Amino acid sequence: MTHPITRRELLRRAAVGGAAVSLPSILAACGGDGIEGQTAAQPGTTTVRKELAAELVIANWPFYIDLSEDEKTRPTIDQFTAETGVRVRYLEEVNDNEEWFGKYQAQLAQGDDIGRDIVVLTDWMAARMIRLGYVQKKDKSAIPNEENLVESLRSPGWDPQREFSLPWQSGMTGIAYNKKLTGGPVTTIEQLLTDPKLKGKVTMLTEMPDTMGVTIAATGGDPENVTPEAFDAAIEMIRQAVESGQIRRFTGNEYVEDMVAGNVWAALAWSGDVISSIQPENPDVEFAVVETGSHLWTDNMLIPLGGDVFTASTFMNFVYDPAIAAQIEAYVYYVAPVEGAKEAIAEIDEAAAESPLIFPPAETLENTFIFDAEAADDPDYKEQFQAVIGV
Nearest 5 degrees, angle CA 55-CA 61-CA 66? Predict the structure, then answer.
């Protein structure tokens, strides 16, 4: 694994060679020239006004966009504001898909505006939001840069034409371990859940597809086609680890602080968090793809009911410029969904372009799976999982 440059080093270099997109090109691409207009409404959408709003509100996960050297501003967001005049309220309020959904479900069910123009949710939750009619269709005419979406992500089964969604980042769920504390690599779920030297020093994720996916694979099941038998075997393994005290707790992104501090020695973790947020603070932490298979997932931008479709779509177009995508990728270190981002990152820092966590080699991808979307939203499976993790 190539050791990443630090965030501060990256952003100093980006300030010299940073990307910019001119306002005229953005507005021309979006069909906007300061004059109000409309596009015909479609099922599942509201009428789209071809006018940028004064403010855009984005709900995203923590550690998921670039920060300035002093970590007080977000360069990509500032660039978008400079180029469009749109103020951005960027909220790091998505720590867990179910938690976020539960907070806003009642309002969405009533068709109310939740005060968010873009929310970033994982595949299975994005599928639920679309199925329930809680999101609006994008204004595709405002997103010509969507042609840069990588081929493998163009047609998910839950949104085959990408009418409602656009990937923000993809990533892998694997094992983060502190090699100084563990005394060596931790690369299997069996080690994580049964090695006595790790007792009480392990965390797993509250996201069922992540935790159950890798455990189903480890117990011989197929996480892409989950059966009750495979689910039962995996949940039993986790239950035993909980009852024995092997697992310290189940978390969202909170494991980052625990790994940095050394409170946790090994954790089920998201690849980008390890590179961008943990290793710069604690270089003893490594990331391993699980030997029996890691989860490959995608978080997607969606426009909830009440959100400003045109302004949200304009932002989507902005971040799908390869140079802008590279600026984000080189900070968050997740799997890039934008073609051309690798070449653009190389102009910022060659080491980032060579990162196997941003651009995984074929052999790594061959050892990953995409979790069964129906199983991820199965109420019986979810009830069993919640009963075991106690969250």
Answer: 75
| Bridge partners, 178 (sequence order) | 285
**How confident is the model over 294-308, as a mean pLDDT?**
96
Q: Is 366 exposed, middle or buried (0-12, 13-18, 19+ CB in 10 A)?
A: exposed
CATH topology of domain 7-169+299-359: D-Maltodextrin-Binding Protein; domain 2 (3.40.190)
Instruction: Provide the pLDDT for residue 311.
Output: 98
Quickly state the pLDDT bin for 262 (edges 50, 70, 90). very high
| pLDDT digit string, tens, across residues 185-220 | 999 999 999 999 999 999 999 999 999 999 999 999
For the residues 118-144, what does the mean pLDDT come to? 96
Instruction: Determine the Cα–Cα distance for residues 60 and 300; give it in Å rounded to an integer.
Output: 10
Residue tagged 């890691």 (tokens): 294
- Mean pLDDT for the chain? 88
The pair of three-digit structure tokens given for residue 383, joined into one six-digit string: 């009830």
DSSP string over 70-136: TSSS-HHHHHHHHHH--EEEEEE--S-HHHHHHHHHHHHHTT---S-SEEEEEHHHHHHHHHTT-EE
DSSP states along 152-166: GGS--TTSTT-SSEE
Q: Which two tokens stand for residue 271?
A: 């690849």
Length of the chain: 391
Query: pTM to 2 decimals?
Result: 0.75
The first and second tokens of residue 108, run together, are 């969405």
Please give the CATH topology (third level) of the domain spanning 171-296+365-389: D-Maltodextrin-Binding Protein; domain 2 (3.40.190)
* Dist. CA 262–CA 50, nearest whole Å: 51
